Amino acid sequence: MIKLEKKNDFLICIDSDGTVMDTMILKHKYALGPSFIEVFNISNHKNEILNDWINLNCFSSKRGFNRFITLDIILGKVKEYGYEYAGLDEYHKWVQETLSLSIPSLEQRIEKIVNSNCLQLAKKWALLCNERISMLPNAAPFENAREIILKLRKADLLGVSTANKKALTKEWKSIGIYDYFNFVASQEYGTKEYVIKEALKNGYLKTNAIMIGDSFADIKAAKAAGIWVYPIIPGHENESWDEFYNIVYPRLISGNFDDNFQRELLNKFEVCLS
């Protein structure tokens, strides 16, 4: 349940990895990618598959997608290298149908499915990812992201992330922003679209709400929920946060954010990850 108490007329939804925290490549190169290699018993073409993983998750239109979605994509891709897994269809079906791409949801499906081999491997992989992420050096925020979040006093703040709750809480508390949010929703609370829609039920006008994120998944979730979106440009994160605070935020608060301005922002982002 999204327990968000409305205090302001405006709502700013904020992603974490690649938006607030400089963690995208770090997590995929040293946690998620290697965990896939280990759990799914990749013995040949390790370097190629690890590079495929990093490129998919950090430098393609799938950047920022939930880890279970990109796992589904990679499992299809490694067939080219001769790797196939029993129960892959069941895993794909779960990814398509579940309302919560998370370990608890995965466990519920495993209990109901006979051919659950791939589902079991996915669970083992996800748990190992969480373990390895917890052992990584303390993540650093993009400097301007932290400074600007602390200044957004005219809006309620909602964390909307596909990271697991433990990691997200640890990271945001370590940099002193966690308590500035009215609510922080991790992957356990459901999809980003679902979280945003639930938050809007507190009485926010859709035209008074915006999602800040660094991926097409964030854009998709915002559009599906009917709110504005501000894309953080990979490689230009600090400049993006400056632009948000100096240009986008004032337009949102003053009611001057419109469809034409939205298209300008999205066009700039699409050129970056096209």
List key phrases describing it:
single chain, 274 residues, alpha/beta, Rossmann fold, 2 domains, five-stranded parallel beta sheet, 12 helices, 5 strands, 54% helix, 8% strand, globular
Can you walk me through this structure?
The protein is α/β, with parallel strands linked by helices and 274 residues long. It has two domains: 10-22 and 140-272, HAD superfamily/HAD-like (Rossmann fold, 3-Layer(aba) Sandwich), CATH 3.40.50.1000; 24-135, no CATH class. The protein is 54% helix and 8% strand. It has a five-stranded parallel sheet with strand order 3-2-1-4-5, sandwiched between helices. α1 (24-39) crosses α2 (46-58). The two termini are 36 Å apart.
Secondary structure elements and pairings:
Blueprint: E1 10-14, H1 24-39, H2 46-58, H3 67-77, H4 88-97, H5 103-112, H6 117-135, H7 143-149, E2 155-160, H8 165-174, E3 183-185, H9 192-200, E4 209-213, H10 216-225, E5 228-231, H11 237-254, H12 259-272
Parallel strand pairs: 1-2, 1-4, 2-3, 4-5
Output the helix-strand order: EHHHHHHHEHEHEHEHH
How many angstroms separate the termini?
36 Å
> Helical region count?
12
Shape: globular
Multimeric state: single chain
CATH fold name of the largest domain, please? Rossmann fold
User: What level of helicity do the residues show?
Assistant: 40-55%
Given this structure, which CATH class of the largest domain is correct?
Alpha Beta
Query: Strands of the biggest beta sheet: in what spatial order?
Result: 3-2-1-4-5
Q: Which spans of ≥5 residues are poorly predicted at pLDDT below 50? A: none
Broad structural category: alpha/beta
> How can the largest sheet be summarized?
5 strands, parallel
**Rg from alpha-carbon coordinates:** 19 Å
In percent terms, what proportion of residues is strand?
Answer: 5-15%
User: So, CATH architecture of the largest domain?
Assistant: 3-Layer(aba) Sandwich
